[in-house]
């Protein structure tokens, strides 16, 4: 469903070049829940951003459902993202002037879904993550964990084939983690594929497969020094 | 060192009133490391913001080192905060146009410390959290965990009597957690007091005391349903 081939990312800041990700090969299989684990600054968000078509690779290619995403224009890429991918960002990225309900409705409205249906589906998604009673609140009126749950609802609302989550449980208490992970696992059972970047060992039991990232290198085996 | 007496916080949004925190009594003792645990949306950040003089209580009082903080003007409160308190916010709150080194130097420069000394102490704090090699980078050039470590360095650099941390390890891998917590524990040993809001059970072994917050109520004992 998603694959990177020799994909790497470097940043040029002033006269230094930072390698966020070494050229890497990996893929997400259809219907699997993949965990991506690794130390802080190792390249996890970079890998997820390449898979999510949020970043262009400096080298190599990204394929989503067989389509070579790294060759598409910005507009075509945005369309592919809207149709196929749900993304939970590490810092939530909620649109501040919009309330929780409007934030969750937005991807559907961009797809051309009518207001009434978009509102109904948004309420369903907010209900799943336990945020229905706060749907009229703005992001800054919500706690960290509440904002994270709204961000998760927004990523799920379009029923995307590929769901990419960057530390989706970092601000959540154990009970919320159970609720969210059970829901995500059900979606995978219904055919979605999912990759989750995390430091949270509470998520290991839910995973079908785990890969590790360390200093920009992706591998199937846990690095020597342990995590 | 810090205490709330009958302190509560409510928000009025449209025609509904949300109680973020019921009138509560609690204190942080000198030289202790206190953990504050509770479900998402229960009022942890609100309690910490009252203790950190970032929010005024709707009722009740807050005392910092014997001074009634809830009766001070905005300016006096900002001065008290600068002199006595280091705060690690849940969303880091780094100043985006400033690089990591300048972010960490800022509290010292506001205290009137000379540029040279402020730079030296900032480099020391960045070294402790393993971020010296990235000190010239802007926040958006850093990963989530790297930004969190810069935010921790900024809270420590003025050697405050009271250090308040809101989920300081949410974006950190196990190794970084060890490094950060050992450092925080050393500071407590040297006389600082600390309160840490967290869902991260990795922090329990470092704590001297744990309090629980559930639906706006602060208590010493773990609520029935467990966390
Ligand atoms: N500005 C505001 N306006 C309205 N309600 C607010 C505001 N700020 C916080 N709240 C509400 O107060 C309650 C407590 O929020 P708080 O941020 O203290 O929770 P928390 O325990 O830190 O949660 P988390 O673990 O998710 O960070 C929540 O229901 C939240 O939505
Ligand atoms: N815009 C940028 N400019 C320069 N360097 C960057 C940029 N974005 C990321 N980096 C660097 O690339 C490396 C990988 O970052 P990435 O965000 O992928 O890490 P991560 O594994 O997600 O870490 P964390 O667990 O802390 O979130 C880091 O060293 C980071 O500082
Ligand atoms: Mg990251
Ligand atoms: Mg909070």
List its salient traits.
homodimer; four-stranded antiparallel β-sheet; 6 helices; 10 strands; globular
What does this protein structure show overall?
2 copies of one chain form a homodimer. Chain A has about 230 residues and is an alpha/beta fold. Chain A has helices at about 45-50, 75-85, 100-110, 115-130, 145-155, 175-190, and strands spanning about 1-15, 15-30, 35, 60-65, 65-70, 85-90, 160-165, 195, 210-215, 215-220. In chain A, the strands form 2 sheets. A 6-stranded mixed sheet of chain A has the order 6-7-8-3-9-10, with helices on both faces. A 4-stranded antiparallel sheet of chain A has the order 2-1-4-5. In chain A, helix 3 runs parallel beside helix 5 (about 145-155) and helix 4 (about 115-130) crosses helix 5 (about 145-155). The longest helix of chain A has 16 residues, at about 175-190. Chain A is globular, with a radius of gyration of 17 Å. The interface between A and B is medium-sized, with 34 and 35 residues. Bound molecules: adenosine-5'-triphosphate (2 copies) and magnesium ion (2 copies). One adenosine-5'-triphosphate (ATP) sits at the interface of chains A and B.
């Amino acid at each position: 469903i998603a694959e990177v081939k020799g994909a790497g990312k470097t940043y040029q800041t002033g006269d230094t070049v930072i390698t966020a990700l070494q050229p890497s090969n990996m893929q997400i299989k259809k219907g699997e829940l993949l965990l991506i684990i690794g130390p802080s600054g190792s390249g996890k968000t970079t890998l997820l951003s390449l898979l999510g078509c949020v970043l262009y690779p400096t080298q190599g290619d990204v394929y989503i459902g067989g389509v070579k995403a790294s060759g598409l224009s910005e507009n075509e890429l945005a369309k592919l993202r809207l149709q196929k991918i749900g993304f939970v960002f590490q810092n939530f990225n909620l649109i501040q002037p919009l309330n929780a309900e409007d934030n969750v409705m937005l991807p559907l409205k961009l797809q051309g879904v009518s207001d009434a249906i978009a509102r109904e589906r948004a309420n369903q998604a907010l209900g799943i993550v336990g945020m229905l009673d706060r749907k009229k609140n703005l992001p800054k009126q919500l706690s960290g964990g509440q904002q994270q749950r709204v961000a998760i609802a927004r990523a799920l609302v379009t029923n995307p084939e590929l769901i990419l989550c960057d530390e989706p449980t970092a601000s959540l208490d154990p009970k919320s983690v159970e609720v969210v992970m059970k829901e995500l696992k059900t979606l995978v059972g219904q055919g979605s594929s999912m990759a989750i970047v995390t430091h949270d060992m509470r998520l290991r039991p839910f995973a079908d497969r785990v890969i590790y990232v360390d200093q920009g290198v992706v591998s199937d085996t846990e690095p020597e020094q342990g995590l």
